[in-house]
Design goal:
This protein has two helices and no strands. By secondary structure, the chain is mostly helical. It has a domain of 39 residues. The relative contact order is 0.09.
Length: 57
Amino acid sequence: MRKALMWLPLLLIGLSPATWAVTPEAWKHTAYAYDARQTELATALADFAKEFGMALD
């Protein structure tokens, strides 16, 4: 029983709708390259957000 409960969250994630990950139409036609070697994750995300006019909360 305990093993079955361990797999329940993974099963629920698999059944969740995929609509959360909808890519904006404008992004599908935009090329973007970023060399993030030795860059902090927060810096890379901030640069990406700034490039596409988004706010990073």
